[in-house]
Amino acid sequence: xxxxxxxxxxxxxxxxxxxxxxxxxxxxxxxxxxxxxxxxxxxxxxxxxxxxxxxxxxxxxxxxxxxxxxxxxxxxxxxxxxxxxxxxxxxxxxxxxxxxxxxxxxxxxxxxxxxxxxxxxxxxxxxxxxx
Length: 131
Description:
Blueprint: H1 6-17, E1 22-23, H2 24-28, H3 38-51, E2 54-62, E3 65-72, H4 76-86, H5 91-106, H6 113-127
Antiparallel strand pairs: 1-3, 2-3
């Protein structure tokens, strides 16, 4: 996955937070977000389509016209993992990077007991200790 610009990331954040694919006008009208111009958003959406970040999820009638609706092509966590992998971490350094990443991620973060148990189970499965 190619790296997203700040504006593209903001659009992805809107799409990830939506419970259905959104049209260009719905993205423009999204509360609390940047006041993009229609032409700017058009350019950003085309760039994101080329990068494979979003996909056309269908068409929606708006007035007398039909417009495309868009959905993310990957989840937030898939994007984060792809960016870590794209850093080109060599085989020797990858274990330390992963340890540092999780240490930084978990610092000051409260996780309930169920979540901790799920994480422990994932580690057991990764080690081959199974269920």
